[in-house]
Amino acid sequence: MAGTLEFSPDDRYNAFITTCSTAPFSDGTLAGIAVAVKDNISTAGIETTCGSKILESYVPPYDAYVVGLLRKAGAAIVGKTNMDEFGMGTTTETSAFGPTKNPADPSRVPGGSSGGSAAAVAADLVPMALGTDTGGSIRCPAAFCGIVGLKPTYGRVSRYGLIAYANSLEQIGPMARTVEDASRLMSVIAKYDPRDSTMLDRPYDHRPSADIAGLRIGIPEEYFGEGVDPRVAETVRNAIAVLEGLGAETVTVSIPGMRHALAAYYVICTSEASSNLARFDGVRYGPAVDTRKTWHEAYQDLREEKFGTEVRRRVMLGTFALSAGYAGRYYAKAQVARRNIMQDFERALRDADIIAGPTMPTVAFRLGEKTDPLSMYLSDILTVPANLAGIPAISVPCGRIDGLPVGLQLMGRQFEDERVVDAAYAYEQEVRA
């Protein structure tokens, strides 16, 4: 029914950048349900910063397509969630508005870059939220905070109105406390949008089923190897055993291209970021430049002042990878590695219906613990392959270590999002019974 929803979040976790104290809602499948939206998704009349000072006070004149679908479904958009600046991070510590804390342990990171969305759901501030996933940015915080996060197949959810970081990799997706709610939110946002040329007309309208008898689950040893905490590996293997107890069968598969996945990902995503973030120049977007200086000086000073360290680092890496004499050496080779990884998944998913492994190699680490960029990038090793391959992947809570959540990651064939949702739902229902 029509009305208003009062929303006063206890933001002790710094989950929100902007909140809407009263949000209108109307009839629809999400009528009266509070939904938080990551702050890189455009919302008409609501500030959208991407977690960056360069977009502070920017108010979009239009809604992203998914936001329009939320409004049409009657959802109450109650705020914009904190995030790593422009989605560049694994912890939500690179936000210009301060780090988000993990509700499971406020001394720990919530994961990133959709850490604010995950924290808002985990802290029971909202039942559902939208995140974006470029290299694990939905699944990582879902795993660290103990909630459900789905990265849809690339091209299944419109990216119109998403402020781009890496166009060929990122997807908007649902985050929720349960698989059923994540699927429900996915059913709202996965509608065809002709304004997004990367989309295919494959709407999602699915009620999860726990019947997984005969499901073949591929277990790649590459997901349980070097760098994965043995306790995480054991917890995930125990979760896979639960699925076997429900009638699924396991087969061994291999993703040999995993050894090149992280390097390929960081060349591709930084190259695309270098191109996308060039628009923030103080002329079209961003604070006005100082016109008393030369254009070059003003442009340089503005970006140095308003972009954070990690954003500047990735823009410079991408600019270098695309520069004359190096594009063939780095960017072209990264695209070859990406194709090899796609083929690895295609082969593996001939023998299996889904692939299972840990979402993250460790549990959530302490705030400020990882200051070396390389060690931070290594945390993405298990999530970036699904983005490179464009396949659906979901993280569902599967246990705890020292009180900290562990995520089970399930991946499937392109546009078989329903299958990975069903497997996650079957596991969730069994362990909650």
Report the biggest beta sheet as strand number plus sense, adding barrel if it closes.
Answer: 11 strands, mixed
Count of runs of 4 or more consecutive helical residues: 12
Annotated CATH topology = Amidase signature (AS) enzymes
Number of domains: 1
The CATH architecture comes to Alpha-Beta Complex
How many β-strands, per DSSP? 13
Give the strand order of the largest sheet, numbering strands 1, 2, ... along the chain: 2-5-4-6-8-7-12-13-11-9-10
Task: Please compute the radius of gyration using only Cα atoms.
Answer: 20 Å
Shape designation: globular
Percent of residues in helical segments? Answer: 25-40%
Strand content: 15-25%
* Mean of all residue-level pLDDT scores: 94
- How far is the first residue's CA from the last residue's CA? 33 Å
Report the CATH superfamily. Amidase signature (AS) domain
SSE order, one letter for each helix or strand: EEEEHEHEHEEHEHEHHHHEHHEEH
What is the class in the CATH system?
Alpha Beta
Secondary structural class: alpha/beta
Low-confidence regions: none
